[in-house]
Write a structure and sequence with these properties.
476 residues, 12 helices, alpha/beta, Alkaline Phosphatase, subunit A, 4-stranded antiparallel beta sheet
């Protein structure tokens, strides 16, 4: 007969075995550090062809892992791309195709823009939630911009939120990172106190990431750090000594000529280097997956603080942020770590929504959300960069206005790129293999191909329930 004390001892023993088993399983799961730059263009890094910016740490990261030459953001602006990473769903499927502040504004132009969600619904399953269920400790650091209070990181699977708010950019990159002189409303970046005059936001966010890595490594619990820098978004504020360095470096032969922007890219690279160095120092590099990318292409308008300079130059790509030309949606993507080949490049077209299943596969998590998702895992490409994906086409949907575009929808199939503009139903067709800069519209000379791609694009939009702009009856 089993006595009550014996039963209690047995239960305690079994509970101990369960805890040991969970810890052992957690130790086998890799740590994940996802670093996302803001508005960093595809050609802004030296390893992607920049003729001005010095990015030795990101260049070294590319040598340590796999560099993707044809990676895309799911949107040419920030919020939609970020929700695609978190959910694996295309922004058009989520009805989140514009940044949060503009989601409920239809505008007053020729077409009325569709009303969108301004916060990621808590009903959506995020990668952080699935990682949390598997035993990960999740920390978001930096820019969030995925919703108001009900859509903050804490509502989407993150144990901690350091600096994430509803805003898309800081008032300033200098401590205390607050004020209302650049933007019309008062803005601030929380959770970064105490600080000192002269502290730079990109450095401070990295300090927080390093603190978290040190703390979590000591616990032996796998961690997911979602480090979303504000750099290199406006306001364009580089460190003065770096601005001077690039001012002295720039010649008339340089394509990229903005020393303030170059200084911000330089600081971004330095801080990615600090994160990588700490991972190495902690002895966890072999069990840590590091992913670096950007949320959209470079911003090509002249800066408010330095109006004599265009912010970014995405040459050889056409246009920039807001546009579905390559300059608005092609982004850097570099990966290193467990299961990733070294010093390799991939030419397979991939998109930001692919990061959702990729992170789950890397963590050994088979669970997936109910309902359709749009991303494909890149795990096989990590191991063998020559691998391709079982996918023919990528789609982009931006039914909004920006200074680089009118409402547009687009797709890439193989080397062919089709854009359809809503205002005048204009079709543009480019062969990216021969015309990366999208200079020669082949729609007239390839009418059958253009019609076929247009039909496929329309079918995709209907399938996912994409929203469209409408005629404005009051437009004059």
């Amino acid at each position: 007969m089993i006595t009550r004390p014996d039963l209690l001892r047995t239960l305690v023993f079994l509970s101990s075995l369960l805890i040991i088993s969970q810890v052992s399983g957690n130790e086998q799961r890799p740590n994940i550090v996802l670093i996302l730059a803001d508005d960093l263009g595809w050609s802004d890094l030296a390893c992607y062809g920049s003729d001005l910016h010095e990015t030795p740490n990101l260049d070294q990261l590319a040598k340590q892992g796999v560099k993707f030459n044809q990676a895309y953001s799911a949107s040419p602006v920030c919020t939609p791309t970020r929700v695609s990473i978190l959910t694996g769903k295309h922004p058009a499927r989520l009805h989140m195709t514009i940044w949060r502040e503009a989601a409920l504004n239809r505008g007053k132009k020729k077409l009325l823009e569709p009303l969108c969600l301004d916060s990621l619904p808590t009903e959506e399953t995020t990668v952080a939630e699935l990682l949390q269920d598997a035993g990960y400790y999740n920390v978001h650091i930096g820019k969030w911009h995925v919703g108001s209070a009900e859509g903050y990181p804490q509502a989407h699977g993150f144990h901690r939120n350091i600096g994430g708010t509803l805003w898309g950019a800081p008032e300033t990159f200098w401590y205390p990172y607050s004020g209302d002189s650049y933007f019309r409303e008062w803005r601030y970046v929380p959770d970064l106190e105490p600080g000192n005059e002269g502290n730079y936001l990109t450095d401070t966010l990295t300090n927080k990431a390093i603190e978290v890595m040190q703390e979590r490594t000591a616990t032996k619990q796998p961690f997911f750090i979602n480090l979303w820098y504000h750099s290199v978004h406006t306001p364009i504020e580089g460190k003065p000594e770096l601005v001077e360095h690039y001012t002295n470096k720039i010649t008339e032969n340089h394509i990229q000529k903005n020393p303030h922007y170059a200084a911000m890219v330089h600081s971004l690279d330095e801080n990615v280097g600090r994160v990588l160095k700490k991972i190495d120092e902690l002895g966890i590099a072999d069990n840590t997956l590091v992913i670096f990318s950007s949320d959209n292409g470079g911003f090509i308008k002249n800066g408010k603080l330095n109006p004599e300079y265009q912010v970014a130059n995405n040459t050889p790509l056409r246009s920039g942020k807001g546009s579905t030309y390559e300059g608005g949606i092609r982004v850097p993507l570099i990966v290193r770590g467990l299961g990733v080949a070294t010093d390799q490049q991939s030419n397979t077209p991939v998109i930001s929504s692919d990061l959702f299943p990729t992170l789950l596969d890397a963590a050994g998590i088979s669970k997936r959300p109910d309902g359709p998702t749009d991303g494909l895992s890149l795990a096989s490409i990590f191991e063998n960069p020559d691998e391709t994906l079982d996918r023919d086409s990528l789609y982009f949907h931006y039914p909004h206005y920006y200074h680089t575009t009118t409402p547009v929808t687009a797709m890439r199939k193989g080397d062919w790129k089709l854009l359809e503009y809503y205002e005048d139903n204009r079709i543009e067709l480019y062969d990216l293999n021969k015309d990366l800069g999208e200079t020669t519209n082949l729609a007239a000379s390839q009418p059958d191909l253009a019609a076929h791609l247009k039909s496929e694009l329309h079918e995709w939009r209907a399938q996912i329930g994409a929203l469209h702009p409408e005629e404005n009856p009051d437009y004059q």
